[in-house]
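<instruction>
Derive structure tokens from the sequence
<entry> Chain with its tokenised backbone below:
===
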Amino acid sequence: MRVVCFRSLALSAALLASSSAYAVALDAGAVAAPDQYSAEVAAQILKKGGNAVDAAVATAFTLAVTYPEAGNIGGGGFMTLYVHGKPYFLDYREVAPKAATRNMYLDDKGEVIKNASLVGAKASGVPGTVLGMWEVHRRFGKLPWAELLAPAIAYAKNGFTVADRQAQYQQDAMTTYNNSTNFADYFGAMKAGDTLRQPELAETLGRIAEQGAKDFYRGKTAQLLVAQMQHDKGLITHQDLQDYRAEWREPIRITWRGNVIYTAPLPSSGGIALAQLLGIKELRAADFKGVPLNSSRYIHLLAEIEKRVFADRADYLGDPAFTQVPVHHLISAEYLKKRAAEINPTAISPTDKVKPGLESRQTTHFSIIDKEGNAVSNTYTLNWEYGSGVVVKGAGFLMNDEMDDFSAKPGVANTFGVVGGNANAISPGKRMLSSMAPTIITRNGNVKLVIGTPGGSRIFTSIFQVINDIYDYHLPLDQAVAAQRVHHQLLPKDTIFFDTFAPLVSPVADELQGMGYTLQNQGWSMGDIQAVQVTGTTVQTASDPRGRGVGKIVK
């Protein structure tokens, strides 16, 4: 288990502690999910006596139907859990097919082929969602598997009402795919306010309900998936599906201000980045003293910290099964002190001087806690909205375009503008680097905050800012989640991104531009935070007003 400890302004090595006594019962369970259908399903499962894991499984499959731009069975993700007072982490991230090659997205001149890693069958990694849900249910679930899939099957058969934003994403996707996939055959007529029925997907979910993960990786669904790959010249084979494994890993453990935070380890960069962000900020606490939230000075200080985190991410991080990643050094007290000392509190550090320091946008997230205090923070994705645009004919589900999360060429940015190096190069069977950071904060063995978000490279910076809002500025949960968020990631040079929901305006914008920053509206929401907070035995939820999420308290 990776450990980093922050105490006041000083950092010291933290020792692994045994789990605290099992948490006391809460007044209610709660869920914060990205749409009304998944939130209601989770609430129903909790009311039936299901635990947080049961509710998570039901929610994930429901989103595969009602939130097709990101919810999925053709993608993958990560889940952080806190069950009976102990932390767990499940990695069901996609892997590169066995036929993948390092330079598969380069032309004969060695240049990256536009959209090759985003559109079409060759953009897809081997999906992990179905096996991930199967494994977590097998280990911790209470209610029968088939019962948890029943709501999703009903929505696929009977339909759901298409939301305005879904229709907008669909129009954007149609332009991107440009009839190069079969996306339009399934989603081309989708309009806001219409009822969308997905009979093929209903049949697929019915098989998975009866046969479990076996159907997806070895049964009829596997046959349909491979047939689609062969038709579209994709790479995923029967052997790829049969060899796929979900991995139980030790979560990153951060001891911070008397709290213990559990979050994502590699192959996600999210946990390491969050540990670095919190640690460096703690060491520079004097710079933040008396600084108003989202003032120009506050945003500049965040940018100074974030550019160093992204410099490390680009060079060092990748699948630990393929790359020796210096995790211990990256989150050690000594290293974070060194990085903190580089911060310039009054001016922009030159981008070319910020080096590695050692010698979803359409993802979706939900947070759940049950009355017994068990919690699930789950983030999963197709990568871009509606993934690769390839629908498995006869099975009705979209495939991911996660291969874009590899570094197609060292130093060349992916669709989120993030560069990578050899540590994240394409290799058969390798898991692509992620920024997902499903996170659970505990104190004295009891869950205090369950939080996560989509947003690609914006994920861990968004979570970091909401944690600041709650713990430094003492904002109520709903205000913290709704507050302005910004993002800086080293490259593009000296650029701070914002969104339309909470834009940078005068005088803060003028002051930042006066310092030399370029301000850019990124054109999409800065995350979609779904959070559950516990105070004593009382729970509350917050769903980001940037999205269409819903929070429910379940007595």
Confidence is low (pLDDT under 50) at residues 1-21. The longest helix spans residues 296-316. The first strand starts at residue 2 and ends at 7. Residues 1-555 form one domain.
